[in-house]
Amino acid sequence: EVQLLESGGGLVQPGGSLRLSCAASGFTFSNYAMSWVRQTPGKGLEWVLGISSSGGTTFSADFVKGRFTISRDNSKNTLFLQINSLRAEDTAIYYCAKGNWNIGLFDFWGQGTLVTVSS
Amino acid sequence: EIVLTQSPGTLSLSPGERATLSCRASQSVGSNYLAWYQQKPGQAPRLLIYGASSRATGIPDKFSGSGSGTDFTLTINRLEPEDFAVYFCQQYNSTPWTFGQGTKVEIK
Q1: Which of A22, A79, A113, B85 is 20 to 30 A distant from A3 in Cα terms?
Q2: Average pLDDT over every residue of B54-75
Q3: Which own/partner pairs from B47-51 qualify as long-range (CB within 8 Å, at least 24 positions apart)?
């Protein structure tokens, strides 16, 4: 059974940083591309970043602008999202999502981790 | 960026009825790389349909997708209590991969 378990969310002040993790199990992690998708009541679902199975290629949404970095450790079956210079508008539930044969098709999602940016 | 517009925003139906949800793209979605997801409160989205009309593993045939180019439809036959949820469309043909704003199917 595919399982994706995010962690690392929480309350952070504007300008702060956060590193989210996603522990994967139930499939051969190193064979699949992965992504981070966030969700807010106002903007709905918003794809943030994707990474190839090897980690050699990343894809990003325009708004990322260098503040967000995706990475992976295939030896530990773990996906990461580093977010710097956090803003109030980054407040969201962050999901990790497994890519299918197409990196942008998400066949399994984690339960999400809530990031709240507030002073 | 491909903008996806879903309609209606809310669909109020009774159990046993059929739901028809629309997703319109601002430009043609190449290869019909259009997916539908279901999301229930407090849960992550679940993949229902990919390639506009192919059901994901384990999805019952009461869910069907159709359409091409810029106009896509998700049909849910014989609504059951567990089908009342929010449904999102998503295009994965070109980055940034984008989602529609969702259609809520609620019990009438």
Answers
A1: B85
A2: 97
A3: B47/A105, B47/A106, B47/A107, B47/A108, B48/B74, B48/B87, B49/B74, B50/A100, B50/A105, B50/A107
